[in-house]
Amino acid sequence: MVTPRRTQQERRAQAEAALLNAAAELVVEHGVRSLTLARVGEQAGYSRGIVTHHFGSKQALIERLARATQAGFVPGLADLPPGLDRLLRLVDGYIGASGSAGTMNRAFLLLWAEAATASELAPIFRERDEAFRSDLRTDVAAGIADGDVRTDIDPDDVAIAVLGQLRGIGLQHLLDPRTVDTARLRHTVTDYWRRALRVS
């Protein structure tokens, strides 16, 4: 049986995925400061030249890694209309996924925490956080419009609080998984936000 040859686009996509996985592994194992284009290429089984060809610089690699690691963390949300139900599913799914986060998701949390003191990371993660908050604000505003969320709730405040809580839980689990029971916590936190936001 003859295996069909992969197109150039397929080969490029496969190499990029391997390089991003290698970068995530290095961040998790050794921290972001250990990340160099040469080490990423070596970890992935490629040359540094391939890494430079795909990303151009360490900064561009980290930006692409930040986007790749955050995408699709809670599957199925894109099919839901904005509103309270989608926000609660996000909270539940995010905490549940934190309990079994893979290398890419752990790398994202480590990079996010590092961004507080690393000037080259801060703009990337400010942008990623604003995108996350924007989605949360949209859900709260839609919930208010639908009559499901209390009208005295400020969407901006909720977005900041939810993002901080979810990322904080993820970091705590990363630091000491034995003390953070995500299976139980996901229900507790989801129920908290349901009671805090829902019209009585």
Automatic annotation (TrEMBL):
Domain HTH tetR-type: 13-73
InterPro entries: BetI_C, Homeodomain-like_sf, HTH-type_TetR-like_transc_reg, HTH_TetR, Tet_transcr_reg_TetR-rel_C_sf
Signal peptide region: none
Protein name, UniProt field: TetR/AcrR family transcriptional regulator
Listed Pfam families: TetR_C_6, TetR_N
DNA-binding region: 36-55
UniProt keyword terms in alphabetical order: DNA-binding, Repressor, Transcription, Transcription regulation
Highest classification ranks of the organism: Bacteria, Bacillati, Actinomycetota, Actinomycetes, Kitasatosporales
PROSITE patterns: HTH_TETR_2
